[in-house]
Amino acid sequence: MKAINDFPKMKKKGEPIVMLTAYDYFSAKICEQNDIDMILVGDSLGMVVYGEKNTLNVTIDDMIRHCKAVRNGAPDTFIIADMPYMSYHIDKETTKRNASRLIKEGRADCVKLEGGSESRLKAIKCIIDCEIPVVGHLGLTPQSVHKFGGFKVQGKHHDQKEMILNQALEIEKAGAFMLVLEGIPEELGQNISQSLNIPTVGIGAGRYTDGQVLVWHDIMGLSEHNAKFNKVWHNVKEMTDFAVKAYQSDVKNKNFPDEEHVYYPVDSRSSHE
């Protein structure tokens, strides 16, 4: 299992960090079996698992439940838990309580929160004060979907670029050990990555971040959201469609169950244990 100190070393060596989301035991187990460096239990589960239009309805209890399942599937992989909307916005005590629950109950290794405002920097510091490592998140931060007017690329204009770069520097100063960059121009992703000592992981942030993260369902062709930055490596949806259709047909045509898939009495010639 990679530890928190391994990721800065990977940045220095130029070794890309591979992060992938997982929300359940099965996907987490596959991640671990295939040497994924880090698993993100993202609040994106609200959209890809529960079918919500955005991430805003996800609760801290939702996150803990899915973190537990992921830890069961990947006991030896570094796990990041998203702090959901309004779980770190109210006051320090609420922020500390929610972060600690993700570590104690969810068994995550660290937490991630969105934004770089002064209040977010204070939240980062108070969580770190509880000995909990923090990952920052800038650019197209999904919890700000209403503020942005939708899921829109950020940092296209000069003033936005300067703001995001400055926030990245402040997040590093606040003590975050890693920064996720989402939905920003490649040049800005490169500039931020070169300006920071901590590693950056991009999702739609170009080729020059220190690592990449994508959503499990997206790389499998299972998502209804087809962002420009996503690539489907294997279309699992086509395979599952085939299996479901074949099952439906076999049952309707009374071809399943067949002799191979039924039980018989102990004294029967065709006995199956």
Question: What would you note in describing this structure?
Answer:
- There is one protein chain.
- This protein has 273 residues and is α/β, with parallel strands linked by helices.
- It folds into two domains: 6-234, Alpha-Beta Barrel (TIM Barrel); 236-273, no CATH class.
- 41% of the residues lie in helices and 13% in strands.
- Strands 1-2-3-4-5-6-7-8 form an eight-stranded parallel beta barrel, surrounded by six helices.
- Helix 6 links the parallel strand 4 and strand 5 (134-139).
- The longest helix has 17 residues, at 158-174.
- The protein is globular and about 75 Å long.
- The model has no long low-confidence stretch (mean pLDDT 96).
* Unreliably modeled segments: none
CATH class descriptor of the largest domain = Alpha Beta
Order of helix and strand elements from N to C terminus: HEHEHHEHEHEHHEHEEHH
* Number of helical stretches of at least 4 residues: 11
CATH architecture of the largest domain: Alpha-Beta Barrel
Spatially, the strands of the biggest sheet line up as 1-2-3-4-5-6-7-8
Radius of gyration equals: 22 Å
Element layout with pairings:
Elements lengths: L5 H8 L3 E5 L3 H9 L4 E4 L3 H4 L11 H14 L4 E5 L9 H13 L5 E3 L5 H11 L5 E6 L5 H4 L9 H17 L3 E5 L3 H10 L4 E4 L7 E4 L1 H4 L16 H17 L21
Parallel strand pairs: 1-2, 1-8, 2-3, 3-4, 4-5, 5-6, 6-7, 7-8
A few lines on this structure:
The chain has 273 residues and is of the alpha/beta class. It has helices spanning 6-13, 25-33, 45-48, 60-73, 92-104, 118-128, 145-148, 158-174, 186-195, 216-219, 236-252, and strands at residues 17-21, 38-41, 78-82, 110-112, 134-139, 178-182, 200-203, 211-214.
